[in-house]
């Protein structure tokens, strides 16, 4: 298989397909090759440079190398770039395609395997020779034997062994390009046999030399010998610089971390000092040091809490949302008072705010405003679908590709220890065989525990108590109870059309003009057009789709400006030229009173809605048929409503017209239907609406067309409270309803939350029983 790939030139060692290796890029040619690979989202080939060859780039490299992927890229302060490279397979370089940067046509190696029995015999002999060599040489790590025994792939085993042998480049290249595995095994076995004989001779000589060296000088001699070897190999300088850099960073953080953390980091630096740069352990330790020394232990935002700043920023960024903003100000007011009176240890008072509400109503942007007011970084941790506990806790360093948890990564991204962290979509975390992330969140959000939160990757405790955690959720019922108990919920409900209009004028339109590079003089959207977009082109609780529609318009305006350079005015008359089709959020109610047709009020994830519940009677046996893709709760409400209406007829509180009671029970079936049959519907709040439709049909009485209702009904005819009243009454207002029937408890408890524009336009009546409902609804 042939490919065209950019080439990175490695000065010192040969890489093998299984290796994950950190590499420092300091030449212009290598950096350009890396940027080309990243730009094209392609793999890259790493080839080794020949010794003492001063020719052009293409002719100074061996014509074979390893193709692989760039796992990580880090820009260093001195202009160098550090990458983490994972090899995939061998390849031959066929010819050069370009030298700026060096790009070549390559062909993947196809290895020739001997018979299985012969291959197993060769593999066993090779392993025996390596064990003998390992027992005689200090340069062969203990992990090599274990890895060699666990490996089941012959070609990987021989590559693993070759990577530890420190071969001269020409010899390493000769082994590297051999495609016949049988020949390769024989050659490597022969080489190791020669090394064993050489080591036997060296051991005899060293024994004679070491016997003459004083015991106190032995450690110094060995270190000097190691330094000399590294110097000869040319790897001393880069590694020594990195080690010195790590030590400097640790010294800066020393006074800001615990003794446990200091010991762990120092232990890993010392371990890295002893390891050879080419060993697999070195790359694991180096990755750990790169991560842990980036954690900003010494940096925190020094700004004190100020409710004036918080309140100012919230009002600047958000229209309406008075209650949520007031609660946020109260939260930070308490923090400010504790700071002023010297109770800094109580500032983290254990309250975790959770903004709950439909999509697009401003949950995450409220947290963003808080971060701006406190001059802290905002870090968003998306929890939707999270099911692996290690994503939060961190992976143990024994695993390939392990890394810290998302909280620690957030601190690194924020470059401070006290950012604002938004735990987004906390109601959508999942549980699987990988663990329960809820259990970790309980620890993270508990001020008594998060002072000593242990990240498995760091392997020491870290203090999370300075972080301000803010959660967001769409449905709080989906949050596990123990986690729900940790949080205080601030509910954000749907915006009214008038609020959406103000938000569009004051926030969305100016922001989108800026994003699209337009000026206010380039385009104008009048108020009637904005109202039409809100009423006929969007269907939502928040303003996210409204923002998208404005962006749709401005994109078309930008094209017109490029063509004609004239100002564009958008009104309700020419709006259809800029937007495709209307959505019609809520149908206007019928103007004519009808039998068996009742307006019900419903809550959905995108706001309120008016459902028209229909009922008819047909010849039958007194059965009840229910359609419209209704949930179990709504079906039960229909059965209860049917029984309640029968009781009213039996008690002669309502009377059938032109029919006896027995005829209604035995001669007719009732069919109840809720239109938009493709949309699932559920909930108890349609109880009084269904009862009204049944009563209207059985008594042949019309239902007032301008009346809408919501309420749960009991078997005794009582009307119980419901949720989502604000959204339901806003929907009624949009649909042209004149009178709304709601449960008395909601009337007494929730009416204060209803916008004045809705209360002024609607006659809202409290009802206690089904008799009250029928009195108001039936003609």
Secondary structure layout:
Elements: E1 2-10, E2 20-25, H1 28-40, E3 44-49, E4 61-75, E5 81-99, E6 102-108, H2 116-136, H3 142-150, H4 154-163, H5 169-177, H6 181-210, H7 215-233, H8 236-253, H9 259-274, H10 280-292, H11 307-317, H12 322-340, E7 352-356, H13 363-374, E8 378-382, H14 390-393, H15 406-414, E9 420-424, H16 437-445, E10 453-455, E11 460-462, E12 468-473, H17 481-485, E13 487-491, H18 497-515, E14 523-525, H19 527-537, H20 544-564, E15 568-570, E16 594-595, E17 597-604, E18 607-619, E19 624-627, H21 632-650, H22 661-667, E20 668-673, H23 687-699, E21 702-703, E22 707-709, E23 712-713, E24 719-720, H24 725-734, E25 739-743, H25 744-749, H26 756-761, E26 763-767, H27 770-777
Parallel strand pairs: 1-3, 7-12, 7-13, 8-9, 9-12, 14-15, 17-22, 19-20, 22-25, 25-26
Antiparallel strand pairs: 1-6, 2-5, 3-4, 4-5, 5-6, 10-11, 16-21, 17-18, 18-20, 23-24
Helix pairs in contact: 2-3, 2-4, 2-6, 8-9, 9-10, 11-12, 11-13, 18-19, 18-20, 21-23, 23-27
């Amino acid at each position: 298989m042939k490919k065209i790939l950019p080439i990175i030139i490695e000065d010192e060692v040969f890489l093998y397909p299984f290796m994950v290796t950190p590499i420092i890029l300091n030449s212009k040619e290598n950096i350009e090759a890396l940027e080309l690979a990243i730009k094209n989202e392609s793999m890259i080939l790493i080839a080794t440079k020949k010794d003492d060859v001063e020719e052009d780039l293409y002719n100074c490299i061996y014509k074979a190398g390893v193709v692989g992927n760039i796992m990580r890229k880090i820009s260093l302060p001195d202009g160098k770039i550090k990458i983490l490279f994972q090899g995939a397979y061998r390849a031959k370089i066929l010819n050069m395609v370009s030298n700026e940067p060096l790009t070549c046509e390559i062909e993947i190696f196809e290895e020739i395997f001997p018979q299985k029995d012969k291959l197993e015999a060769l593999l066993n002999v090779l392993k025996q020779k390596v064990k003998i060599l390992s027992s005689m040489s200090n340069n062969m790590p203990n992990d090599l034997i274990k890895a060699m025994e666990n490996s089941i792939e012959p070609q990987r085993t021989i590559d693993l062994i070759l990577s530890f042998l420190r071969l001269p480049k020409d010899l390493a290249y000769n082994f590297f390009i051999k495609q016949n595995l049988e020949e390769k095994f024989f050659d490597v076995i022969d080489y190791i046999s020669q090394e064993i004989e050489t080591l036997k001779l060296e051991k005899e000589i060293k024994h004679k030399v070491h016997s003459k060296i004083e015991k106190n000088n032995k450690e110094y001699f060995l270190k000097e010998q190691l330094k000399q070897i590294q110097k000869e190999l040319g790897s001393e300088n880069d590694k020594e610089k990195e080690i010195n850099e790590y030590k400097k960073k640790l010294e800066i953080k020393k006074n800001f971390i615990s003794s446990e953390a200091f010991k762990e980091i120092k232990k890993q630096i010392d371990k890295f000092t002893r390891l050879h740069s080419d060993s697999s352990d070195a790359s694991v330790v180096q990755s750990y040091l790169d991560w842990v020394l980036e954690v900003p232990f010494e940096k925190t935002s020094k700004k004190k809490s100020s409710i004036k700043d918080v309140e100012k920023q919230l009002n600047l960024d958000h229209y309406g949302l008075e209650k949520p903003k007031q609660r946020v100000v109260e939260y930070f007011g308490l923090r400010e008072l504790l700071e002023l009176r010297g109770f800094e240890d109580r500032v983290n008072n254990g309250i975790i705010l959770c903004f709950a509400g439909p999509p697009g109503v401003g949950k995450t942007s409220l947290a963003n405003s808080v971060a701006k007011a406190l001059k802290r970084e905002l870090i968003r941790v998306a929890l939707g679908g999270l099911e692996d506990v290690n994503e939060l806790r961190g992976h143990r360093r024994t695993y390939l590709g392990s890394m810290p948890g998302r909280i620690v990564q957030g601190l690194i991204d924020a470059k401070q220890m006290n950012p604002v962290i938004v735990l987004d979509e906390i109601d959508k975390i999942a549980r699987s065989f990988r663990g329960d992330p809820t259990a970790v969140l309980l620890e993270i959000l508990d001020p008594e525990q998060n002072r000593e939160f242990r990240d498995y990757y760091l392997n020491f405790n870290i203090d999370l108590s300075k972080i301000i955690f803010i959660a967001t959720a769409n449905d709080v019922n989906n949050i596990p109870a123990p986690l729900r108990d940790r949080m205080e919920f601030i509910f954000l409900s749907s915006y009214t059309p008038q609020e959406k209009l103000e938000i569009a004028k004051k926030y969305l339109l100016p922001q989108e003009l800026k994003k699209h590079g337009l000026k206010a003089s380039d385009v104008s959207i009048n108020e009637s057009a904005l109202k039409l977009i809100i009423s006929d082109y969007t269907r939502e609780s928040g303003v996210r789709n409204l923002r998208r529609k404005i962006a749709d318009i401005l994109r078309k305006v930008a094209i017109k400006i490029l063509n004609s350079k004239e100002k564009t005015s958008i009104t309700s008359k020419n709006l259809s030229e800029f937007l495709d089709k209307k959505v019609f959020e809520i149908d206007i109610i019928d103007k004519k009173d009808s039998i068996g047709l009742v307006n019900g009020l419903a809550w959905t994830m995108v706001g309120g809605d008016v459902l028209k519940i229909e009922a008819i009677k047909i010849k039958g046996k007194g059965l009840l048929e229910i359609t419209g893709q209704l949930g179990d709760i709504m079906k039960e409400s229909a059965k209860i409503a049917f029984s309640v209406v029968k009781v009213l007829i039996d008690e002669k509180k309502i009377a059938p017209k032109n029919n006896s009671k027995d005829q209604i029970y035995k001669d007719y079936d009732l069919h109840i239907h809720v239109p938009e049959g493709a949309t699932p519907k559920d909930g108890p709040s349609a109880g009084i609406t269904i009862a009204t439709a049944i009563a209207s049909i059985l008594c042949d009485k019309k239902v007032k067309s301008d009346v809408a209702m919501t309420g749960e009904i009991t078997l005794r005819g009582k009307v119980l409270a419901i949720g989502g009243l604000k959204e339901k009454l806003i929907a009624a207002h949009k649909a042209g309803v004149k009178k709304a029937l709601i449960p008395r408890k909601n009337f007494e408890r929730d009416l204060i939350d209803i916008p004045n524009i809705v209360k002024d336009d609607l006659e809202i009546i409290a009802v206690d029983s089904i008799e009250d409902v029928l009195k108001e609804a039936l003609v």
